[in-house]
Amino acid sequence: MHPAPGRSAAVGVAVENVSLSFGAMQVLTDVNLAIEPGEFFALLGPSGCGKTTLLRLLAGFERANSGRVLIGGKDVSALPPWRRNVGMVFQSYALWPHMTVRRNVAFGLEERKIPRQQLADRVQRALDLVGLGALGERRPSQLSGGQQQRVALARTIVIEPDVLLLDEPLSNLDAKLRVQMRHELLTLQRTLSITTIFVTHDQEEANTTADRIAVVDRGVIQQVGTPIELYDRPANLFVANFLGVANVIPGSVSESGGRMMFRSREGDLVVPLPNGHRDIRSVVFRPQDIALMAADAASPPDKIRLSGVVSHREFLGGVVRYHVDAGTRAFVVEEPHRRNHVAVPPGAPVSLVLDPAHAVGVRD
Amino acid sequence: MIAEFRRHPGPAAVFFAVAAFLVVFLGVPVVNVVFVAFQDPATGAFTLVNFEDFFRTSLFRESFWNSIYVAAMTVVVASALALPLAYFTTRFHFGGAAVIQSLGVVPLIMPPFVGAVAMQLLFGRNGSINLLLDSWFGITIPFMSGLNGVIFVEAIHYFPFILLNVTASLQIIDRSMEESAQNLGSSGFRLFRRIVFPLAMPGYVAGASLVFLKVFDDLGTPLLLNVNKLLAPQAYLRISTVGVTDPMGYVISVILVAFSLLAMWAATLALRGKDYATVQRGGGGLARRRMRPSEKVGAYAVVLLVLVLVLSPHVGLALLSFGTVWSFSTTPDAYTLAHYHKIFEDTPEFVTNTVLYATLAAGIDVVLGTAIAYLVLRTRLPGRVWLDYMAMGAIVVPGLVLGIGYLRTFHGVEAPWGGQPLAAWWGILVIALAVRRLPYALRSCTAALQQLSVSLEEAAENLGAGKLRTVRRIVVPLMAGGMLAGFVTSFATAAVELSTTIMLVARESDAPLSYAIYVYMQSAAGRGPGAALGIVAVVIVALGAFFSHRVIESERRERAVLAAA
Amino acid sequence: MRLDPWRFLWSALFVAGLFAGPVVAQSIEDKLVIITSFPKDLTGPFQAAFEKKHAGAKVEVLNKSTSAGIKFLEETASKNTTDLFWASAPDAFEVLKGAGLLHKYSTKAKGIPEKIGSYPIHDPDGLYFGFAASGYGIMWNTRYVQAKGLPVAKEWDDLKKPVYFGHVAMSAPSRSGTTHLTVETILQGEGWDKGWATLKDISGNFKTVTERSFGVPDGVNSGDFGFGIVIDFFAFSSQASGFPVDFVYPKVTSVVPANIGIVKNAPHPKAAEAFVEFVLSPEGQEILLDPKIRRLPVNPATYSKAPQGFPNPFQDKSIGAGVKFDAKLSEQRYRAVSALFDVVVTYRHEDLAKATKAIHDAEAALAKKPNAEGAKLVKEARAAVTAMPISAAEAAKPEFAAVFTKTRAKKEDKAAGRQAEVEEQWDSFAKKNYADAKEKADKARSLAK
């Protein structure tokens, strides 16, 4: 067991060349990750992408076919779950119905043979930390969903794990509670400065909490970066689409005059890509990077102009989102909303103005 | 393959311990007896000719189909009896639920011979019911004749298997499952059929497969009704005929075992690939609804009707135990306490022996059943399902075969204490009872574990508990209901086991109740005392079942105090 | 741990005694283990009286059904723990004798004749001893008979009558040695073919064929069926217990002994011998007169102490007078007869009963409206029902008997096939004949309409 009390430094987690399959089904393919000590790290991806399996691998519930996992520089690949000192909060919380809240929280400390008085103190502290100090004698079935979530959290952090693993911890909560809990989680993580890995399919959750995000699809890490990096510089089509709304224009890259140029499939759009590669298959424009103008307005220089018709619009409060049909393509454009600003009605012919400087070239 | 064992030394040790137990106390004794099935009767050489004979013989073919028909129909009738009891008592605020559920176990305890006499006196061609029907309406109903008679009696006798297992399953289905269905407009019978019943499937399949196998293998009832064109009686009659060495009895035993394994495999397939674990066990508590007054009347009427029907043999038994002479009449001629006086003068140690043996045997069963269920459902050790199959195979080994096998295997072995043969030690009888009743406990334990979400165990491991401690602190407490159901079933049926007991009892002072009942029932004068002993057995088991329910219920109530509020 | 300190002490003393010098071996061992199929009502009084007579001797009575008892002795022979086997059926003792599991002994008991009726009381080879006699007959429930308005059947032939259809029961001869003797008595009394015809005609009236011999008196006592073909003491002891039943010996019956034998390598041989002597002594014989036991003593002198109306086969020559029982013939075809009965009656009882009912109905119809062709058909139907797949001569052949037992003991023994094979032939024979009979009888009945 790790000496837990009075912990000082957080530890890093490294995943090296990990592959895993269940029978014929390949679940993880050559996964490499380096998570910094004290980092709040998110694994983001659609359901079934392998992110939970990766988390369970870190906890020791799954065994990799190849590759290894290092926690604090130590290879833990061969250790069973109970020897890893990795705390996991389950999506279902997995609270034991036959035990009170206090007994649930005390469980891990009892397994560590912590002396009784110290145990009681630490359990109470953990319960106080999650704001359930008064509910220790309740049964899990007597708690609300949010309270159950806090118990699960308390049960895990009370053992002062080296790494905290959270499996979709907020998915069973209502929207308002989710925002609150996510803030609390972050505060808690910062207070404890514990390396935390967080699995979610919700980009907003990942963006608002994580220091860095790994986007996972079909068992492969697509890209690792800060939320802003991922949004502004998606490496491929999947990342671009998964994080925020993307207007994707397919085409190809060719070199002309020493410059890399992207040409759309229809040929109506040509943009220079200074750092472009030949394997780039599309460019992406974010909705806020496209300007909407009256069909007869004068065209600004150095911009690309496409004609279209507004098919429908959505008022989102801060912004108005327009769906515009332009030939065979459909675009999503967002404009900030201000009071007394008159929105363009559906059916109106419009011009779309795209700035080549905002084009991001992405691979498939 | 072997790496899997090496990687998990703890489970591997349990695996080998369980396997060794089953091989020594089930495999070896049975093989010691049934190898005759593979011997040429004339030369002793290995042959399959006996199996050819089996399929060539029209009597055996008819018996085979009759057995399947009777077993399947019994499952249908038993389900009709069990499901209303299980559903009403677990899903509604239903007064006397614990009493009803305890009484529901009672039919399993049909003491040998006297149970049969009581049934005949009530339902027989000239039993109370038919005598009354005849005098009132001039009709009689052949409850107790032919295959339908077997189905009738077996269904009454074995429906508790379904009741117990379905009740255990229903009690751990999260209420959100039903509430969401109600929310989507489902109610009443549709709610039961589309949501509740499918979710209780592991319990139902466990119970129904037990009923099927037990009936398929059952001897007592066909013999009581003198229906012999079924496989089990055919095997028994051939094995127990004095001085005849017909291998067909053993051939039929082998076929019973093989077919039963097939049926179990089919039951496993039926459940495979479906997830029945309700994630947050007890999270939302149990859904208990209130019935409208009209519904309440209907439900109580159904429950009472079922109870009256299934408990009537025991009412008959009670009458028999207090009656003087009961012959061709609706009730005994007069009543007396003499039979009870007699048994307490004759045989006080039978009661303590029975309680001791049945408790030990059921205890062994629950431990083994939990171990096997855990190995099967929670490990990937190769060969683990064979433990399950082997243990379940015990259900179809005729008690007589097991008894002979034990004598053959353990009589030559001297007990390490004193000079007596191991087979004459009462502990061997306990082990034999445990082996015979293991399938009951095993099915209950398996169903209970199936409904336990793995994440509850993973959470414990994640917090530092090893496999063993996880089992002890999480798995066992959460499986307690299923384990208790298994214990009660094993206990109840072990308490009245006769066919192995009569082979293995080596000293009257070591004998249990069923032996005493058998002895009494060898004479006309012993009918009353035999019935009185039968009642004692029933009372012992019913009390055990009732207190078990109280324990489970109080535990549950404690858990759900606030959830209900 | 179940170390019996007393036993330990005794054996220690015994060993000490061996070394101390010669022990006078007049007293018997302190323990006696008996395996029996007899009810407590019978064993209890004997046990009590024996223990009283031999102070210090503890009799341990283990109750097992006859077949379980034999299997137990066979399986434990290597290390025998049993002293005596005590049961009714002579055939069970023949099996033990054949397997060499009995100990030879010659009794000192006086006053017991060589034979009862035509049946030897003791085994001529001295391996087992008859201690009580029993005869076979018809037992009936008086309430049942009154309620259904049935006449009382006194002879086997009475039970053939249509009026008894569905009112009679008997145990299978393969299940009960005593029933086998009843069947064999009828076969010897009337001859193979006529005997089987009688048996089948009676069996056609059976409500059921019970699995154990006590099932018959049990059913008569309950009133489940009216008449049972039983051994006498079942009826007498039922009467003594207050059941409304009665019993009669038909003319064709035989009186056979119930037996006791010493098991080979008995752990307490002296006690075993003492018990045998006790059972055969006048004192022991008298216990048989107990109303709950009611078995016929084999010592004729004991009958002087019997209550009024107690049957005495040594004086009342009508009991068992009809047949000269050939025990050797019975032994030769024992298995064949039992198996034959099972195949053509027990397992095909439903078909047999249907055919019998059809014949009864046809005969009733023809009686009202005679029809020559119908009469012929009924006659053919009856012949089909009573036909047997094998003859008396075949049944008694040794190789036929070998079909039913292991022949590995002697290589030169030949078996005429496997049991399953033979039974399948018999079964198809019976099934077809019963179907034919029913068809013919139904046709005859329609002719008489």
Q: In oligomeric terms, what are we looking at?
A: heterotrimer
Number of strands of chain C: 13
Indicate the percent of residues in helices of chain C.
40-55%
What CATH calls the topology of the largest domain in chain B is MetI-like fold
**What's the rounded overall pLDDT mean of chain B?**
83
H-E order of chain B: HHHHHHHHHHHHHHHHHHHHHHHHHH
Number of strands of chain B: 0
End-to-end span of chain C in angstroms?
79 Å
**Radius of gyration of chain C, taken over Cα atoms and rounded to an integer in Å:** 25 Å
Number of helices of chain B: 26
Write down the overall mean pLDDT of chain C: 85
Structural class of chain B: mainly alpha
The unreliable regions of chain C are: 8-26, 407-413
Span between termini of chain B? 52 Å
Q: What is the helical fraction of chain B, as a range of percent?
A: over 70%
Beta-strand fraction estimate of chain C? 5-15%
Sheet with most strands of chain B: none
Structural class of chain C: alpha/beta
CATH superfamily of the largest domain in chain B: MetI-like
Range of strand content of chain B: under 5%
Summed up:
The complex is a heterotrimer of chains A (364), B (565) and C (449). Chain B has 565 residues and is mainly alpha-helical.
Description:
- The complex is a heterotrimer of chains A (364), B (565) and C (449).
- Chain A is an alpha+beta fold.
- Helices cover 23% and strands 35% of the residues of chain A.
- In chain A, strand 7 (163-167), helix 5 (175-192) and strand 8 form a beta-alpha-beta unit.
- Chain A is elongated, with a radius of gyration of 25 Å.
- The relative contact order of chain A is 0.12.
- Chain B is an all-alpha fold.
- In chain B, 73% of the residues lie in helices and 0% in strands.
- In chain B, helix 17 (348-378) runs antiparallel to helix 18 and helix 24 (513-520) runs antiparallel to helix 25.
- The longest helix of chain B has 34 residues, at 58-91.
- Chain C has 449 residues and is of the alpha/beta class.
- In chain C, the strands form two sheets. In chain C, strands 1, 2, 3, 4, 7, 8, 9, 10, 11, 12 and 13 form an eleven-stranded mixed β-sheet that branches.
- In chain C, helix 2 links the parallel strand 1 (31-36) and strand 2 (58-63).
- Chains in contact: A-B, B-C.
